[in-house]
Amino acid sequence: MTEQMNRVYYEPDSGSLFLDRNGIRERVILLRRGFWDGFLPEIASILGDGGISLVMRKLVERVGLSDVLTEKATFRTLIDCFDRRILPLSREDSSLPESVTWGPHDREVVVFGDTIWILQDVFTIQQLKVVLSELLDDNGANAIMRSVSRKGGLSIWDTALKNYGWTNLDTLIASQDKNVFQYTFSIAGWSITRSCFRPISSDDYVLLVKCANTFESEGVVSDKPVCTILTNYMEGFLEGVLSRLSEREKSVVCREVKCRAQGDDYCAFVLASKDKRDGILDWDFIMHEYEVLDSTLTVPVAA
């Protein structure tokens, strides 16, 4: 009997990647290689040496892959879950964005000609967040997601400057919407997205990001925002870039102010920057600036 081969296809109108498993469609995304490595020390620091095994065992139960388990579940179990839910994959029958190419291994693609991103299924990502919340409560789970995602964003400022051609704040502001949010978010399958800046001082800004269909909110119902990976990834990313392009080291805070999981029509994120040596941000003022931006930025539509 011939083994059923899965295929991945890209829908540019929705900024989404889907896995087709014999006619069954499931959403997948791209994340940078090494993103999940940051969870090892974070989980161990809270749950101890056996924390990784405990988290992985519960995750396997959640995604229905009990045969992935070994006697001692390790971080490799998470990778095995992604493999089992996506592979075997037919690259020949798959369709990817024109600007990316297949990488050397099964779930890898190459973005910007040299950066490796990995195909991950959204369901496993969402279930990992659920497991962490069950074991640590929402605050503990969000603390881990914040730390790992923010570090991921901070780590790529130098790559961003090279890939997007940013040399100063003017070039950042002029092209970030087209390059980061309309382009990268879409080809990674994260969402159809638009954004705009508003200056609040000579080199500090409020940034509004509107996302039609974030992967974290896909099919989720909640009484609070759920896009913790995107929130903190964007926060770290913008902080790293602004600190490099500004004369002073910057701090950035991001808040998700609308979320599909709460019943909103789209997800919206407000990011605000300040000098690290300054006090805390005045969020009453920031939200006033957000309202001004909100009235000028249209909501992207995922067809």
Would you mind describing this structure in some detail?
It is a single chain. The protein has two domains: 7-145, no CATH class; 156-294, Muramoyl-pentapeptide Carboxypeptidase, domain 2 (2-Layer Sandwich). It is α+β, with helices and mostly antiparallel strands and 303 residues long. The two termini are 38 Å apart. The mean pLDDT is 92. The chain has helices spanning 39-47, 51-63, 76-86, 122-154, 157-164, 169-187, 228-245, 283-294, and strands spanning 7-11, 16-21, 24-32, 101-102, 108-111, 115-121, 193-199, 205-211, 250-258, 267-275. The strands form two sheets. Strands 1-2-3-6-5-4 form a six-stranded antiparallel beta sheet. It is globular, with a radius of gyration of 19 Å.
Question: How would you classify the helix and strand content by structural class?
Answer: alpha+beta
Give the terminus-to-terminus CA distance.
Answer: 38 Å
**Portion in strands:** 15-25%
Element order, helices and strands? EEEHHHEEEHHHEEHEEH
**Number of beta strands:** 10
The outline comes out as globular
Total number of helical segments?
A: 8
Q: Tell me the strand order in the biggest sheet.
A: 1-2-3-6-5-4
The major β-sheet equals: 6 strands, antiparallel
Percent of residues in helices = 40-55%
Instruction: Provide the domain count.
Output: 2
Query: Quick check: average pLDDT?
Result: 92
- Give the radius of gyration: 19 Å
Low-confidence stretches: none
